# Entry
Amino acid sequence: MKHKGLLLLLVGVAIIALMIYFVGPADIAKDLERADPFYLILAVIIQFVTFGLFTLRWSITTRAVGINIKKRHLLPMLLVGMAINNLTPSARGGGEPVRAYILGKYSSTSIESALATVIADRGLDTFPFIVLAIITIVSMILYFDLSPIWIISLITAVIIIIVFVLALYVSIDDGAGEKFTNWIINILKFFYKKGYKKWSSKIKNAIMEFQDSMRLMLKNRQVFVYGIPLSFSLWFLEILRVYFIFCAFGANVTMIVIAEVFIVATLIGMIPLLPGGLGAIEGMMIILYSMAGISPSISAAVTVVERLISFWMTSILGVACLPYFGAPVVKKLSEKL
# Structure
């Protein structure tokens, strides 16, 4: 089980290789050769700008709970979390506990407060995503001839989003939090009838501290005034990055089409089948771009370059940042893989 994540990563790579084989490696290679490096450099620059904005948004939630830490320290934590999200089949959520662990350890803050900042940060990302996802799913079902399996996959991804929203609700509602606490204690009682009592008070205190931190952030106007506009800006930049990659290949594609494909691919990537949605995201992007009238070879070339920037470059940078935090974090990542 220790190497399950690595095995799934290799399966995802194999799926991508198979898709490239069916599209035609020679045609894809020709398109890659004639790509305009100017637009590709712009796409890479945008990716680094998004790293900076993600860090800025996280710093808003950390300041809201009184965690004093500089942005230059938050950035490598963020990259490590992104890398773990990419490299583990965990519905793009495996990196968040690790981010909280590193933040708590590095800033001498409780894990509950650190985790609250991470969840609030992801919650800010959820507002624009839900709006864009609902619009996209409705338009895709109406205007694209999708097979039932893809419709089911999209609905499943939306359910994952709803679960996250419910979890956010639990984090701030006293009644829901108490029910959640009792549910955890009952599970412990079932498996550990004699030793569960010593954990009960610790669990209750941890959830209470987590809820206090969440409420403190939600009362801070800066979290919403600056966090939500930043989240919308980040989604715009993600779409703009893909647009510049299309420009590099001389393809005439509207940003609306790119936005629809990007949102659907992100939804598919949330389903915890393969690490970072590897294989599923690439396949969905190639299929939908082709359905929009773009040649399969250019669709594949754009997808390969986009994922090299957003997935592989981010993962490499995140893994490269691991030594910055020492052996314990490296051990956690190795256990996940």
